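Homework-ish question, so no full write-ups if that breaks the rules, but can someone show me the predicted structure for this set?
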Amino acid sequence: MRKLHQILLPMLICFAPVTASAQAPGAQGGGSFRVQCPTATLLHPGSAANPTPAKSEASYSGPIYRTATKDPTGAYTFTPALTFLDHGGAIKCQEISGGDGMMTEADGNQTYMFSFGPLSGMGAIQNGQPGTEFPNVFNNPYTAGDSSGNYLSGNPNPFFDGTSPTDPLAPGANGALSDPSGIMNTGVLNGNIPAPLMAFDEDDEFLLTLSNVGMIMRPDLFEQHTVHFHGYPNASSFYDGVPDASLAINIGGSFTYYYVAPDAGTYFWHCHITPPEHLQMGMVGQLFVRPRQNRLQSGDNLFNRLAGCAVPPGSPTGTTVTCPARGVSTVVGQQSDLRTSCNPATDILCSAPIPVANTGATQPTGGAKYVYNDGDGSTAYDIDVPMQIHGFDPNFHFVGMTFNPEGFSDMKDKYFLLNGRSYPDTVGVAGGPADVLGQLASATNPDPVTHAISTNDTDSISRASQPLHSLITLSASGGHACAATVTVCGQKAALRFADLDVQEYQTLSSIGIPMLVVGFNAKILRDQAGNNLYIKTNSITLGGGESLDVILDSTGIAPGTYFLYTPQLDHLSNDAENFGGLMTEVVVIP
Amino acid sequence: MSYANTKNWCAVSRFLSVVAVALLLAASAHAAAPGIKGTAFNLNAGPTFSSQPDGVLVYSWGYGCTGGTPSPAVFAPPTIGTAQGANCPTVQLPGPTLIVTENTSFTVTLRNSLPAAAGNTSILFPGAATVTTSGTGPLGLLTREAVPGGTVTYTVTYSAPGTHEYYSGTQPDLQIEMGLFGAVVVLPSATPTGCTTSYPAGRIDYRLAPSAYDSPKSCYDREYLTQWSEMDPGIHRQVEDQLKLIASCPTTAGVQFSCPTALNVVTEPYHPRYFLINGRSMPDNMDPNYAPNYPNQPYAANPHMHPGELVLVRYMGQGHWQHPFHEHGNHVRILGRDGNLLLSQTDATQLAGRMEFNTDTTPGQADEGIFYWSGKGLGWDIFAHTNASATATATCTPDANGYYTSASGATPVSYDAAGGYLAGSQNYYEWCADHNHPLEANPIGTVGGGGPMTLPDPLIVADGLWYNGTPYLGPDAVLRSAGPTPMAPGKPGQNPTPESGIAFMWHSHNEREITTNDVFPGGMLQMMLVDPYVWHIDETF
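A: Not a homework solution, just the prediction itself:
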């Protein structure tokens, strides 16, 4: 590292003026950065389905018909009125930097990345949580800083008010950086692996602002970055992130991506500029969309609310709805709107067919979480576990760091990463349940508070680079989502797998706890007749660009430590270290 | 800073290579699933050179039509026939796609024109119900073979529709790597009820059949077939070098060593550097079927479709490796595998295949899926209509499925003989729930404001070659939303203004494979375009 620093320091000095001048032009005193996060939109103006879309989700009880004659600003009039079917949902925003950074491998090697870093939701991200925020948090100024009130770069944050930078709940730690100096002082070299986690709900509008802060370690490059929302059904080409088919943002500017949330499921996202290079270099992140079934009120019948096909309240006289097979014509539900319905007779690509029968499952008191709109409660779980599989070829990264064009056909991954870490760092939570020997008790990396692994960058500043551990802790008696015949419910984890490896297929096995595969490629495993086609297995295999949902159920599992590991034995290594790699632990506690 | 210059030069050369591609292609090129159809095929196995986009000609073997003519088989679909450039050289990569009908016996007579040192060759028809062989060649381990210069005849019947592979059953680790593989499409013997059997005036049918299987769930409007394979040029070089050595080895007396007479090629470790779809790497696969610049690689891979069209995707693995084929734009519903339609265990009228945004291509396996793109649920009007302006209005009456189609009063689009737009609804197949809903916060052109988004300043972005200049679909929308800073002249070369489609990338997501011998872009990559109905999709050009 010292050597690298010596090499790069003159370079940083050399290029600092270039970076500074990039901020200079423009009316607001810096570049073309522009962050977007409206508090009200035509789709979410604050109507009956969700009166406060800027700060909360509302419960779901089927669509409501609404019209609009003006946009929320009142500037534009629509004649005749625009029509909507409201399902609730809210406005969610997130901001990321596109640039570079360093990460720490499990053998201590520091590796250079092209990468995305958080520019909003930073307190949440550093605590391993999604950085997706409501406008009323996102639009707050970022008021955190180090003990001196400085940005990561060491320059003072004029908005500093003493907020802890790692507080996952403080609005000031999670607000977006929207001024150019804040973006540059924070975004440069703040790349994460995985890239910032995103999660939101069906029916939300999601605005993602990508600010290209440049790759300061590669001042010879003037590369754009983009965001590809991988797997979105009926995607917009404009917001698909493929530079050949759309626009790509240059250094010093922002591009805001816009989607109404797609069907619930486990997706992921990545840069689509020169994909074999930018993905291998680390520009890969995870994303999941929660189903509207999560938002049912307690006592609501899951089947009826999915199968319901009554005419939405408020609809014009004469409105009719065609009920699909097994539809429930007396309930307003997901079949009441063609956007959310699934009638296999008319749509070969619809998402969640109505299950074969009403199992009587209802929303429990206090709510529940489901992977999909299953209508039968079969995808219920207790904890979300993002699981990104990736691989790094240290040679490729070194060549990329040292101003050389990388070769593609000889690419060979030597580090195998789960959520950006290899074993044992995958479980490296100081004082956590896996710390049975106490050997991590005094660890400072991972950070004992945030659990993030930090890496010393070439400017001698340490930044949180790998916020997500992969230790799964399940209570064998603490679950609520299991069959009525079971006396003691164990907790269930939804493992949201996404493989972003660019080189080869990856397999992960579970020892001791069976895997239940309930979804593949962001769709529930269910045939068009409504039969669940879930797979009970002990291993899953994914190619690059694939996602899969596994439920791990701790019901009846003896307390102890279990393992998820790759049986591709050469992937159980950290470069020259022959034990590590693609492995993590599942700790079952009583 | 010499390193920097190197990298910049690389970036420039990459860009130039893309520009060169743009110049090569006058306009969009398309694909379909062309092949030869009949009950008697005369195939030839022989040597050729395959062209790669880095300029390298790789020595290869392939199947082709004996004598350079498919007769007695004919070209299919009939809309991509001899008049449209269809041909069948004596050797091609992949081999000719054989189009046959279920429960109808056909023959394949294979002539072995490989170099004598390559030895025998043969063809396997995995998935066929019956295969009988005849000929003077020996029975190899897997099937009857043709000796060098000899022939063998296979009589084959498939008992169900579907997509299959055919490939060499003799020393397959070498012969398949060298290119001895092809596809068989087995058509259903009858058309299920409900399939589209005729198109509106002016729209040309490029399908092989109205359905993939005997089920009405397998009806489709358009189809593409892709074969995924890799190439390790080191193996090909060994073969070429050894053949030269064998040919030039002196046989006269006094030579101090014995001349080799057979190939002895090391095929492992396997290290491919070319990643091919239908025998071509990107961008070559975007040139038309039967493009004269690839005389031995006739098949393209460049899908186009209109909104809402059911697009049958036939795909198969023909190499050593699996490839995760990522379809941008929407999911694919898997229909069947190796000629077996996947149906529900409790209701045989319902499909049970998965929906996938990544379909694994696996060596020796062929699958079909159905794809469409409709823009449903975007939340904004992709045709850029507004009811805040008198000039940008249009009708959108939803049919039973929510789209504006002939079922709800839309006028089907018709074309003149040259494929020019004559008349019809510009927004045919619009998703009506988002009709008139604005995307942009501020008006632009005659496109209304009031939406959630401000688009980036055109001066701080890079434009893509397939970008139509706006977020919208169709020339009407694109012209109405022209911004104050238009795209650079000639920029949307692959998607000109009269087309104004929206583009999606279909590619291997083991991203290393979208390169050609270390150069990006290349390899297993296609650009799929969703074109408005007013743009005539000509699969022959």
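Now go work out the reasoning yourself. Hint: Chain A has eight helices and 27 strands.
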